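In this supplementary section we document a worked example of the pipeline. Step one takes a protein sequence of length 259 as its only input; no multiple sequence alignment statistics are reported here. Step two produces a three-dimensional model, which step three serialises into structure tokens for compact storage. The input and output of this example are shown verbatim.
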Amino acid sequence: MKKILLALTAVVLLFGACKKTDDNNNNNTGITVKKEQWALAINYTATWCGYCGSWGAPLIKETGALPRVVAITPHASNDPMYNATFYSQFNAERATGGGIPSFWVNDTKTGQGDTKSAAQTATSLMPSAALGMEATRNGAVYNVKVKAEWYTAGTGEYYLSVFLLESGIDGSASAGQYKQSGTSDPAYTHSFVFRTCATSSLYGDMIASSPAAAYTVEKEYAINILPDWQKTVYPVAILWKYDPTSAKPNYKFVNAIKL
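The serialised model returned by step three reads:
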């Protein structure tokens, strides 16, 4: 009789454990999501652009060094770091305005004097949703897991992007085609260079539709690293809300994270 009771107790405990996992919206892998607001800073740049080297690069480096800021530098055409497909997708939503360097913070085009302060202000807000990320590099492949969590109910469609960026690329006078015009720094390096996206669309996969508060979802990606990406390559993730009825950008920034 005692053995039967023990067996029944084990079955009840097992069923209860499975049910608890199911109640956690689909996922329980241990990825930590901190309730923090990050900012996105984009600087369109190019090696041949003198202003990009003289004041654009210092500004994005200062902005990208702020706590909880993901900085990205898409490089324009006639530059060895140019990615035509994704550059055009960046520019279609957040236009340069016809010249570079050109800056955006979240969903607002910013000028030389207000980019850094706009990023600082953005990180002081309370997030409606946030991201957690784990990543491991295995040779020429980055395996990235991202978890999104909502703190307030959302409406509409939400998309998740995962990018690989690279920093530390030699841009000094001896760097050949990578030499940055306009800089006075003899040891100049390119930072936050956009390399690739985990999906064919810059704005990634739709991961939620009108999510409830406390909803969580996870995605996993394997991203190839090309042989000429030799310096510091790292992943960032960005959560967007798609709003086709608004003025561009239609993909509104929600939150981001980097390791």
